[in-house]
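Box 4.2: Ligand-aware structure prediction
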Amino acid sequence: MLIVLHHWAADKDVAQVKRTIASLGLKPVAIPGAERTAIGVIGNQGWIEDSPFRGIKSIREIIHVTKPYKLVSRDFHPSDTVVNLPGKVRIGGRSPFLVIGGPCAIEGRDQIFQTARFLKKVGVKVLRAGAYKPRTSPHSFQGLREEGLEILDAVRKETGILVVTEVMSPEQVGLAAEKVDILQIGARNMQNFDLLNEVGRSGKPVVLKRGLSATVEEWLASAEYILLGGNRNVILCERGIRTFETATRNTADLAVVPLVKSLSHLPVIFDPSHATGRRDLVPQMALASVVAGAHGVMIEVHPDPEHALSDGPQSLHFKEFEALCRRISGLEGFMRRSSRK
Ligand code: PEP
Ligand code: MN
């Protein structure tokens, strides 16, 4: 439920509405906004009757929220959320487009340090690399796990680059939160609710990928778990969905970028590597996401993709990545100028 007050409502009117909400055993959340004063209601598991609010003159309108998410929605938070990362790096709103790059998996210290130094050289501030790898086959490389986290911790301390890595279970969150700057929830775990609750409690910035076959509503409802746990630092990541089409690894659903921006205040990024599964398609789709209004991209890049232990065919070579970064930056400038006109 969303309660919108008249523009003349004073602090005591707001307090009265909040008291009424609390008297029902529910939680009021103030909704900031220059245009209106509104109070959201959370904590209910079903319909809330209007009757307790009926005599309150300062109330202009009561909106019943039927979506499975509230804190994530623009109704509850009209302005864009900007997620603050360490080192004054920001994502969301009108912050600069954020490029995240790195290999699918951590394979060793040299590979990660070489990649981090390369990324820094081309001006990329965040490195991605998986320590815990959710692989379809148990016979495939499963990741270096805790040893991988130590490598990430070392690389961020020695180079100053920020690092993002995936967690697959609630038990992994505590240690990962100490060793990296951003946690990632992968497509296969988008509805691992215990994991969502745990990263909610951790307060760490989180990249939440869209599930393999998840609807936008299910994806946003998963983000709601994290926000409800007290963590507002959520970055949504579209990584393609499974359709009847097998020519690409997944079907890149770029329309959700502007769609999700209209439904939610959270930043949205795009992962053209998993969305296509093909190195030759990655640059064009990354550029398309800039035009679609994404706040950033996450791209797989590897010093030697031909010998990568996972996702080599979709990983860019350093040279290709560097050329793409230049094009992204030119396009971003163009988009900013054209949106001001
Ligand atoms: C990854 O980022 O390497 C990954 C496993 O992605 P997804 O969860 O989108 O499949
Ligand atoms: Mn991968």
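In the box above, the bound molecule is phosphoenolpyruvate. The first helix runs from residue 11 to 23.
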